[in-house]
Amino acid sequence: MGLIDVRELLAFPQGDNSSDTLIAGIHFNLTTLKHWNYTYYSNNTFSNGSLCFLLFEPYTPHLLMNGTFLNSTSCYSPIDPIGTRSEIGLLYACLFALSIMFTFINLRKHGRLFLPTEKRFRAVGRRWQWYWMLMTAAFAIISGITGVDIDRYYLPELPIVLSNFFWFLMLPTTMATNFFMVVPRSWSNIEKQRDPDQARLLAEPTATDIRFKLAAFLLFGGWLTTVYSLRHSIKHYRPQNRGLFNRFGGFLRYTPIKFLLTLPLSLVMIGYEAACAFDFTISPLKLGTDLGLMYGLGWGAIAAIFLVYEVAGYIDPNEDRELIRQRRIRGAEIDQEMGITKKPHWWSRLNGQRGDMSVHNRIAENVHELGGGRATTKNLERSIEMGNMPISKRRDSSKPMNDQEALRAAANLLFPSPSGINEQSDSFQDTPTRGRTPGPNTDATTTRANLGDRSDSTNSTNSGVSITAKPQQVRSMLDV
Fold first, then answer.
1. Of 235, 299, 305, 333, which has the fewest Cβ atoms less than 10 A away?
2. How far lies 204's CA from each of 6, 14, 220, in Å?
3. pTM for this structure?
4. pLDDT one-digit tens code per residue, 324-361
């Protein structure tokens, strides 16, 4: 390929005279070329360090006396056909583009909520896996498409930088780690691989500098963090095993299959990136790199991780649905242990029972089912006549009574408390009054008058309960 041919400085060929040179059958003014510092290279190009033009057919330009080239073609133009690197890159780009559809399907499946949100739980926790996969797939598509022009450009320039830039973005997004050790840096020296000496002096030191090495170790640190988090979860939420080998076996047994597959694949990806940081010959930044290692370890590992997660997302159920299923099973087991048989859903419709009934209606239905009869009715009427109706706090009539107050009122109405009668009977007992104790010379009439005053005040505050009323006769438990 012309991209990796040795580029050497050549003397201008002899023309018709000392100020003329003949290149590819075209005469050029030698004085003008030297005035603008143009140099002739063995790869059939003119270059003065700022501009570069092709000299072979059908891209041969025409030089004017003022140094302007007409019908010129830049050396950094996609004039060559696509090669093996471009074809494999397009194949991976298509695969990652196809994965986006399945990622959206899994995102919708696992991101939907069927249970009320909790204070310490956010749905974004289970959605972020698919967000990272969408980002990685987007970077892979851009890298694969821009890699086409790496083969098509006559001399390497921007495409090799763009393709590798987005490939390096794929690595931290796959591990969901920091990528600032790779992104904010100068990439211009990577383009300068127009001859072996230029690649060795400029491109290789940039591709193997300290930042790429640190980025590889940061990726490995993220991988170790993932393994430690998995080990921590298994240790605290799974049964413990004794012994080193038993613990390791338990770790493998309780680890989900998708993690058992993706953790080694991600380690292969990190190992390849670390090797590229020390050996430029296998790095994707090199123009003529080993494509087997590049696409097998650098791209194949990421594609395999995507495949595992897409299949696992298709098989695994939604977490909320799974919790609902487990709760239903536990509830059925508890009901079976307690001997409770739940009625089917059509039972309430057939019997006219509604779940939105008020508290008063439910109590009335319970009383009707118990069959209190006339005794209960008379007891309720007597309680109302005797003033045992519970008096609620003053409230706005426009606001409805809440369920607790309504339930309390109904319960006091059905089952009156004997506390009021006890208080009335206690008020007629001779108990010493607070303050001074009446002396021996106290008039009996005065004492009787005081007792009468107390009885009158007591009767006025207890809704007229008469002390001469006959005691109630309990005829059933419903009258209590």
1. 333
2. 17, 38, 23
3. 0.68
4. 999 999 988 988 888 877 777 777 667 665 555 666 77
